[in-house]
Amino acid sequence: MNSANLLDRVLSKVVKKGTLMVTHADGHASTFGEPTDGFPDIKIRLMDTKVARDIMLDPRLGAGESFMDGRLVIKSGDVMGLTQLLRANKPWERGGSLLKPSPIRRIMGRFSAARESINRQKSARANVAHHYDIGNELYGLMLDSEHMQYSCGYWAPGTKTLVEAQTAKLAHIAAKLALRPGQQVLDIGCGWGGMAIYLARNFDVNVTGITLSEEQLALARTRTEQANVSDRVKFELIDYRDMAARGDQFDRIVSVGMFEHVGPPQFETFFSAVTQLLGPDGVMLLHTIGRMGSPGSTDAFTRKFIFPGGYIPALSETMAASEKFRLIATDIETLRLHYAKTLRAWYANCIANQTEIEALHDKRFFRLWIFYLAGATAAFESGGLCNYQIQYARNRKTLPITRDYMAEAERNLKSDSS
After folding, report:
1. Which of 387, 360, 414 is nearest to 142 (CA)?
2. Integer Cα distance of 237 and 194 in angstroms
């Protein structure tokens, strides 16, 4: 049986709701599924006979590279609809799974992922540069205009815009930090400074942000000066391990969207460093993409093109690493669909700014980027991904014994901004 016939056989088992028409390179077309409310109808064309083979060898990498190269063309619908159609037919919570890479590709993938996830300091900086130093202009076109948050927003009922969702996320996290006047705050993986600026504007605290991205560092400093908070906010290009080694200590630590870059071999190193950096009455809020099930592995497409060295942690392995350093998990929240909404907003911004993004990079990069965003959206809507917010304390008596203070702080922040 050739690759085209194998692909048809697999798709016939996957697509039941919504429709997918595949026109192969030899001109023959196959249609799968039935029209269903809430599921898209998609038509694609495979431009050469190798596309089906590449997808069968490694579905996500093969489809992604074929789409990037213009060898998999979407004739009706879009790539967001295509990924939604495939993943929504096999939702994670119902035991669904999509086609896996071939056995030899899985073995090679596990070996490569294990090697890349070591993430020693030299490789960590290179991995960060791969993703974040591709140009601040791209992120300016995609992210919210006020805070430039490249992480999951918080879509409370009534939230309408990306700016509102990201402002709400910052307030949600700030409330969990239980900040007090005069405290020293560390932001590990500070991005373009949005969190640090928000905390300095709304609380009488001093914030130090650290990053491994030179592009982020430069813009974060500029944005801090524009926000008139440079007297209380500073940024450094430094690894968290080096900061811990030099003996710095803080009252509060926040880390948003950075733990995904640490890698399992460095989990204990991360929490050891955090414990050294956190004062005896300190509190930390860790916000990370996570797996809802057991530990897994990073797919080849993501490792190759998006986050080399990246790894999405399961809650179990995160807790297993942190508990070895007597960090008390005082609160854990699972955000299920918030990132899917955020990704759809980023995707819409990229589609609206396609001409500008292609001018900054090229058409192939644009297709790469929207494939990444579409695949991630499907993983949060129907796959096994979510976000975890884990609050840690070093002293069981530091925080109030009920969660009421969080809601009160959020209400105050919301009323102050209105």
Report:
1. 360
2. 16
DSSP state of 314: B
Spatial distance between the Cα atoms of 275 and 345, rounded to a whole number of angstroms: 36
Largest CA distance in the chain: 70
CA nearest to 56, candidates 103, 16, 99: 99
Give the CA distances from residue 408 to residues 146, 172, 176, in Å, rounded to whole numbers and listed in that order: 24, 11, 11
CA–CA separation, 189 and 88 (whole Å):
32
Best CA proximity match to 286, nearest among 393, 199, 210: 393
Alpha carbons 43 and 74: distance in angstroms, whole number: 6
Instruction: Write a three-state SS string for 262-278.
Output: CCHHHHHHHHHHHHHHE
Tell me the C-alpha distance between 23 and 68, whole Å. Answer: 18
Model confidence at 418, pLDDT cuts 50, 70, 90, reads low
Using a cut of 0.70, tell me whether the model's pTM lies above it. Answer: yes
Tell me the pLDDT tens digit for each residue of 29-81.
999 999 999 999 999 999 999 999 999 999 999 999 999 999 999 999 999 99
User: What percent of the chain has pLDDT above 90?
Assistant: 87
pLDDT tens digit sequence for 284-328:
999 999 999 999 999 999 999 998 989 999 999 999 999 999 999
The pair of three-digit structure tokens given for residue 227, joined into one six-digit string: 């926000």
Return d(Cα 228, Cα 217) in angstroms, integer: 17
Taking the C-alpha atoms of residue 48 and residue 53, their distance in angstroms, rounded to an integer, is 10
Contacts of 340 (CB under 8 A, 6+ apart): 377, 380, 381
Using CA atoms, how far apart are residues 390 and 333, in angstroms rounded to an integer?
Answer: 7
